[in-house]
Amino acid sequence: MHDRSDQLADSRYLLLTTFGEDGTRQDSQIWVVPDGTALGVWTPAHSGEAERIRRHPRVLVGPCDAHGRPTGRPVPARARLCDPDDTARYRTSLINKYGLTALIVLARSRFRVGLAGTVGIRITLNELEQRLVGPEWQLPTTYCVN
What we know:
Blueprint: H1 2-10, E1 13-19, E2 25-30, E3 33-35, E4 38-44, H2 48-55, E5 58-64, E6 75-81, H3 84-98, H4 100-113, E7 118-125, H5 126-133
Antiparallel strand pairs: 1-2, 1-5, 3-4, 4-7, 5-6, 6-7
């Protein structure tokens, strides 16, 4: 399960599928960086992705090419918007992974909307979340309080 998260973090682009109020799907091709056992992405704070995640944290993620065409099977995940410190960490990770291209994109974004105009999104794969938390504990049938 952890391997799937690593594979997605290593891919050049991530296809992020968010859902609207009426359940309509919206796909976004986006850069991705690793964040421990999760994935990190970066987007404008008032983008469609961020607004939809604020309302519905369930998403689908999968690898894609530079044109947003899927190159693998999407998996269910849960997304949450990050605080300014995690967002700053994602910006640094983007520069480390994508180099000069990310540096230019981030500089343009900072000039246009400032640091508060963007937000990081932390994505945890559902299969990993289930593995870490496990099934709900139930009292064994052979349990004895003594």
